[in-house]
Design a protein that fits this description.
about 30% helix, 4 helices, Glycerol kinase, 4-stranded mixed β-sheet, FGGY_N, two-stranded antiparallel sheet, about 140 residues, kinase, ATPase_NBD, Nucleotidyltransferase, domain 5, transferase, alpha+beta
């Protein structure tokens, strides 16, 4: 009988998975840390393959512990790192670069150039609701591509 939800929180420092019942009680949980990669000052990356392995690892650990059987879960809830960016090669499914983490500042110069363009800052904010900042995904995607 399906009575649980599998929650997966893929966070900045690691991945947590847990089973929660319909009343919000935790039944089982697992956590696996992953590396932070700092190729230059102000840059932060994660290895996408390592992230995927940590997600699979914590789910397998929960199932192996046997507190909840796979058929006992009604669904899966996911949370992730917000503005962290990963890009995959369509043909292979492999990442083309490490994940650029939300707090990475590698695009700061690019962002400053964009902010200096007359009217662009206000136009971007009006259309998107966000400010031109290295935190957001668009500059990271531009940097990768």
């Amino acid at each position: 009988m399906a009575n649980y939800i599998l929650g997966i929180d893929q966070g900045t420092t690691g991945t947590r998975a847990y089973f929660v019942d319909k009343e919000g009680r935790f039944y089982a949980g697992a956590y696996k840390e992953h590396r932070q990669i700092y190729p230059q000052p102000g840059w932060v990356e994660h290895d996408p393959e390592e992230i995927w392995a940590s997600v699979c690892g914590v789910v397998h650990q929960l199932l192996e512990e046997g507190a909840v059987r796979p058929g006992d879960s009604e669904g899966i809830g996911l949370a992730n790192q917000g503005e962290t960016v990963m890009v995959w090669e369509r043909a292979t499914g492999k990442p083309i670069y490490n994940a650029i983490v939300w707090q990475c500042r590698r695009t700061a110069d690019m962002v400053e150039e964009l902010r200096a363009r007359p009217g662009l800052k206000a136009k971007v904010h009006q259309k998107t609701g966000v400010f031109i900042d290295s935190y957001f995904s668009a500059p990271k995607i531009r940097w990768i591509l």
